[in-house]
Amino acid sequence: MNSDTEHDFERDLSLADLLRGIDKQRLESALQALLGTAFAVSDHNGEYLLGAADLAGDAPSLALYGELEPIGQISAAIPQNRLKAAADLIRLLLRANARYLMASDLHLQTQQADFEELQRRHKALEQSEQRYKALAETLEIRVRQQVKTIENTQLKLYETEKLASVGRLAAGIAHEINNPIGFIRSNLSTAAGYLTALNRIDELLQTCADLSSLKAAWQREDMPFIQQDMQDILQESIGGAERIAAIVKDLKGFSRVNDADWEDADLNQLIRQVCNVAAAELRDKAEVYLDLSQLPLLHCHPGELGQVFLSLLMNAVDAMAAPGKIRIRSACRENRIVIDIRDNGRGIPASDMSHIFDPFFTTKDVGKGMGLGLSVARNIVKAHQGDLEIKSQPNVGTLVSISLPLPAGR
Amino acid sequence: MAIFDEESKRLSIKLVYYGPAQSGKTTNLMRLHDILRPDLKGDIMLMETANDRTLFFDLLPLGFKAPSGLLIKFKLYTVPGQVVHDSTRKAVLSRADGVVFVADSQRGQSTNNGESFANLEDNAARVGIDFDRLPLVVQFNKRDLSGILSEEEVLRRWQAAPWPVLFSSALVGDGVVETFNALLKQVYDSLDREFEFQARHDLSRAAFIAQASGQIDRSPP
Ligand SMILES: Nc1nc2c(ncn2[C@@H]2O[C@H](COP(=O)(O)OP(=O)(O)OP(=O)(O)O)[C@@H](O)[C@H]2O)c(=O)[nH]1
Ligand SMILES: Nc1ncnc2c1ncn2[C@@H]1O[C@H](COP(=O)(O)OP(=O)(O)OP(=O)(O)O)[C@@H](O)[C@H]1O
Ligand SMILES: [Mg+2]
Ligand SMILES: [Mg+2]
């Protein structure tokens, strides 16, 4: 595993890290009201993070502790016991946030590791896919040998098929790829048989000069049929190889979770890739309808947004008691890109609505849901200055809306 | 791998409690939190679901200052034992400086112990830990229960293995500190080569262990 990814759950958390995601103004005004006087919170470098930066330097202060050591301090002109109460309160808040930050970083870290594994596997698939293409073009030569090579490659591919760790998508994708490999293989064996027939005619060609016996041999070997069938199976095999190539291409685009870089991306294309990648997981459970309108490129982190779409899509699939419908709509209005994901699944009971963004809240079985999907999704969207909202009606369905701002003056 | 921060004179050592589901890893950490009295002891961070199954990890931070002024910080983690959480287990194990393998003494648990130990070996290899050089102690827990393997049976089975085997009843705290100390002993030896505790920090092995576990004063204050 890559140990210096941006989501290292073990990194030391500074006071500023630990305050991240906490509404600064609300915290300040709550503390202000509780203490009844001006206060200041600074980190151990003396940088002010909360309260009045201009507080008198001689105000009493107390250290704020991280894991073991002080990471900052709080100062206010109040009695020591009340200052200590405030420090305790802040510490409780920081602990809760540390717990969440570490868990969500670890979650992202393991997800990245799983995707790296997926990528590695696809490199292997891509290579064998290229081998198939070359094979289809030079079919006449060494057919038998190539069949052997494919057999070996395929064997190796599936021996290393420890799909469990690659998450729920991988099994379906392997099936998707396995299918064309199956018929390409069977076509190649058929072609090998045809080559034998051709060789027999070739032998006759060397020895006999009389056209009619040659014609008879031609009919005997059923060559007219073979000509037609050869055409068909080549066509089919090329189609299969193209299908594999398409799957690999989608996956490559989608599984770029490690690219730390922001880039200009077409969200429609990202949505299509996510749907393709999830196709096997969706089969028999839900039908996806795409209603995408032309979008300007968005400067974003495509790998992370892809994860958001996938996570929401999986939530929608999981909400289906019977095969259902998922509609993904994209639009651009008022300088924002809006993406709606609507499902007609079981919906969210009103009593759960206030909890669904809580980290670790899940209604799914142990091992199935971590309860981090939505909270991580919302954080990613927030990092893009966007909003993620959910409306739901039990037994009718759920609508998740993501709205992402475009740069001003566009 | 221990992280040494030259600037703040701080050495961070990571120890991991590994083992099959429900063997008592979290309980070990909770008891250590109750019993140990090192100079610095942080809050214990437990991450479990309603039915006490560890979901991500538990964490107990400890620390003390060596005579040289070096701050030695320990981060004690547990992994989730349930089979499905393998990616998490791998991430928590990565960069460990020492491992306590917590096995369940109950007769019916031998297969789970074996599979979990094999999984530890696999994951160590995946995250680039040299298993043969990794400080490791094996703890057979839940000695208070009936229907457990006898000490003789356990020792016979582990006879050929190079790791110390200890017995514990984490629920009541028996053997928990002894296990921790046995690991510290190995960790000291393995890190001493790089950090020269004795020569550069005036820190003997006995003092390292005594300070990390904070020699216990159980008498009431
Ligand atoms: N009788 C007895 N029970 C114990 C002992 N140690 C732990 N337990 C019990 O075993 C159960 C599981 O203990 P945990 O410490 O949560 O186990 P764990 O290894 O952290 O489990 P996971 O987090 O699922 O991997 C709890 O009910 C503990 O009270 C022991 O020494 N004796
Ligand atoms: N489209 C939806 N329809 C019905 N319920 C939903 C939907 N999306 C989310 N929920 C509810 O919200 C809960 C939290 O969702 P979230 O994505 O955060 O976690 P999860 O799907 O349970 O687990 P994870 O995404 O971490 O694997 C779900 O367990 C489910 O009860
Ligand atoms: Mg989810
Ligand atoms: Mg546990």
Automatic annotation (TrEMBL), chain A:
Entry-linked Gene3D superfamilies: 1.10.287.130, Histidine kinase-like ATPase, C-terminal domain
CDD domains, A to Z: HisKA
SUPFAM superfamilies: ATPase domain of HSP90 chaperone/DNA topoisomerase II/histidine kinase, Homodimeric domain of signal transducing histidine kinase
UniProt keyword list: ATP-binding, Coiled coil, Nucleotide-binding, Phosphoprotein
GO molecular function: ATP binding
Entry EC number(s): 2.7.13.3
Catalytic activity line of the entry: ATP + protein L-histidine = ADP + protein N-phospho-L-histidine
Enzyme class: transferase
Superkingdom classification of source: Bacteria
Pfam families: HATPase_c (PF02518)
Xref: PANTHER family: HISTIDINE KINASE, SENSOR HISTIDINE KINASE
Name of the protein in its database record: histidine kinase
From TrEMBL, chain B:
Entry keywords, A to Z: GTP-binding, Nucleotide-binding
Domain of life the protein comes from: Bacteria
Gene3D superfamilies reported in the protein's UniProt record: P-loop containing nucleotide triphosphate hydrolases
InterPro entries the record matches: Gliding_Motility_GTPase, P-loop_NTPase, Small_GTPase_ARF/SAR
SUPFAM superfamilies registered for this protein in UniProt: P-loop containing nucleoside triphosphate hydrolases (SSF52540)
Pfam families registered for this protein in UniProt: Arf
Keyword Nucleotide-binding on entry: yes
Record protein name field: GTPase domain-containing protein
Organism: Methylomonas subterranea
Lineage of producing organism: Bacteria, Pseudomonadati, Pseudomonadota, Gammaproteobacteria, Methylococcales
